[in-house]
Amino acid sequence: MKNFGKLLLASTGAIALCGAAQAADLPAYTKAPPAPDALAAPASCTNVPDFITTNCALAYYGITVYGTIDMGGGYETHGTPFNQNIITGVEELVQKNSNKALWLLTPGGLSQSNIGIKGNEAIAPGLNFIFDLNFGFDPYSMTAANGPKSLLDNNGVPLSAQSSNADSSRAGQFYNAVGYAGLSSPTYGTLTIGRQNSLELDGVNAYDPMGGSYAFSVIGWQGTAVGGGDTEDARVSTAVKYRLNVGDNLFRVSGMAQLGGYDQNNATQGEYGAGIGKDFNFGAAGSLALDAIFTYDKGAVKSTALAAGSAAFLAAPNTLGATVSDDTSGMILAKYTYQKLKVYGGYEYISFANPNSPLTTGFTDIAGIPVLLGNISQSGFVNNEHLQIMWTGARYAFTDTLDAGIAYYHYDQNSFGKTFCNNNSASTCSGTLDAVSLNVDWQFAKKFDAYAGFMYSQVHNGLANGYLFTNNFAPTVGLRFRF
Fold it and tell me: Quick one: which H or E segment has residue 48?
C-alpha cells in the first residue's frame, strides 16, 4: 500500500500539468464518498499517511485523481467459480450456470474498483470546462473489467463446467467506465461529449436502495434495467448528453443521443434518451424526488457465448454470438426522505422487437471480439417481448457512519413465442424473477467502510429455462477504500 500511495502521488504531480476536470459518473453506493467540510474543499495530500488516514484529495492545479478499491468474500449455495474478466468476479445473482456451493473471492460488492482523473476549471464567469476519465478493474487479478471477454472464456464450455460470466458495457476499454469532456453552467446547464452513462444507469444509481451494488442489487448486478433492455447499452462511447435545472427547483430535464454506431465502440446503431424530474420539499414532513426516463435503442446487441459442441463454436471458437433487437423502455423513479429514513421505488417497462433494419454483415463487438453474421439472431421475437422490472426498499441511517438497507426486486416477462406458454420449456415462455437483499455499511474511517449482507434470488418458468438450479443465496462481506 505504501508503494501504491507513492505511485499515486507521483502520477498526480505529473498529470496536474495537463488541464482541469469534474464529476465522476460511476455506479455509486447510497452512502456518499467521504465528504469534505461543507465550506472548503479537502486539502491536497502531501504524504502517504495523510492519504490513507484523512480525507485529503489527490488534487492539484484543478485536477483530481480518484478511485475505489473494493474487496471481499462470500458464500453461494449455487455458485460458479471466480472469473477475472467478468466485472463482478462472481455470480451473486442466480444464472443458468449457477451450480454448487462455493466459498468465493468477491470483488466489487458495493462498487466497481476503479481509478480515474477528473476536473472542473472555470474558463469564463459562470462557465466551467469539465472532464472525467475512469477505468474499472478487478482488484484480485488486476485485469480490466470485461464482460464480453468473460463470455469468450466460456465459449464451448458446458454449463456445469463454466466459470462466472455475463455480458457488460465494460469491455476492457481504457475508459470502460466513462471518458467525456464538456461545459457546465449553473444557468444554461451541462453539455458533455464522449463515453457516458445511460440515463437509466444514472437513474438506478440515484433511486436503488442498494445503489446499484453488485452483491446486493439485481439491477446493479444485471444490466438489463440500466441498458434499456441490454446491458451493453448501459454506457455509450460517443454520446452527447445535456442536463438542465429549470428555474429555482422548478424541474430538471436531460437528453442523450449517440453519434455513430458499432464502429465507434457502441453496442447499438443508435441510442436516444430523455428524462424529466422534480424534487418536492414538504418541510418537517420530508421530501420527495421523482424522475421519468424514456430510451430507444436501435439495433441493440446482447452478446452470448457459443454453445458447447455447436457448429458455430467448432467453426470459429474465438467469436461470439449475439441477439440484435430494437428496444424501447420507460422508467419511473421515486425516493422519499424523512429524517434518517429513505424509501425507494422504481418501475421500468421494456419492449424488445426484431430490428427494423436487420444486419447484413457481421461486426466487431465493443470488446474487439468478432461476431459473425451467421451467429446473430435477429428474428427471435415472433411477438414483442415485454419485460417489467420493479423494485422497492429503504435505508436507515443509525448514525452518520452506520446505515442499513433492505430491498425487493421483481421481473415479469410475457410469453412472446409462437404459442403461449407459462412453464420453463422455452425462454420465450412467461416467467418471473424475484430477489430480496439486506446489507449494513459502516464507515469506520474517513476513506474506509466495511459492509456485510446477502442477496437471495430465484427464477420461475420462462426466466428459468435451461437453468441448472433456480435459486441462489449469496451472503457477502467486504472492505472498501475510496480516495
Answer: helix 48-53
